[in-house]
């Protein structure tokens, strides 16, 4: 829900599984509209968008290596890497991002159990997904090392 708020210009809405139901002929039989649950203040949203953009586009960003060089300038992707630690297991790799940054159309979440760090495994997979979504040539996913697991 948090990333949805950035993708919708700061509007928070109650999560729903189905937005509408169509019959076999494509006619609307039921609609389940989003319910407004408040707004993220514009200054807070702008600060967060800048931070998400820096994760991918700044040379000090945790996902910079996975996205550089990105075929669009400036990179039209913002996101957040993550690493979850589970006792007795390898780290779980996470990346959540969206594109384009200023008026997002797509949100992508990648979780790789026992995949290592977010920037090493999940972010390169997300990059390939974003390239496809943006109609760009999809390159090989940069060195994903197998770190173990079942």
UniProtKB/TrEMBL annotation:
GO molecular function: penicillin binding; peptidoglycan L,D-transpeptidase activity
Pfam families: Transpeptidase (PF00905)
SUPFAM superfamilies referenced in this protein's UniProt entry, alphabetically: beta-lactamase/transpeptidase-like (SSF56601)
A single GO BP: cell wall organization
InterPro entries in alphabetical order: Beta-lactam/transpept (IPR050515), Beta-lactam/transpept-like (IPR012338), PCN-bd_Tpept (IPR001460)
Domain Penicillin-binding protein transpeptidase: 2-131
GO cellular component: a single term: plasma membrane
Protein name (record): Unannotated protein
Organism of origin: freshwater metagenome
Top-level taxonomy: unclassified sequences, metagenomes, ecological metagenomes
């Amino acid at each position: 829900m948090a990333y949805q708020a950035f993708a919708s210009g700061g509007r928070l809405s109650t999560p729903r599984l189905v937005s509408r139901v169509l019959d076999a002929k494509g006619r609307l039989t039921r609609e389940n509209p989003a319910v407004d649950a408040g707004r993220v203040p514009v200054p807070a949203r702008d600060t967060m968008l800048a931070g998400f953009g820096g994760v991918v586009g700044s040379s000090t960003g945790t996902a910079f290596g996975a996205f550089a060089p990105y075929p669009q300038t400036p990179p039209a992707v913002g996101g957040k890497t993550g690493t979850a630690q589970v006792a007795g297991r390898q780290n779980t790799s996470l990346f959540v991002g969206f594109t384009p940054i200023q008026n997002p159309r797509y949100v992508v979440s990648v979780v790789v159990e026992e995949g290592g760090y977010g920037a090493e495994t999940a972010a390169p997979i997300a990059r390939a997904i974003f390239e496809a979504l943006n109609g760009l040539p999809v390159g090989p996913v940069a060195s994903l090392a197998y770190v173990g697991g079942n």
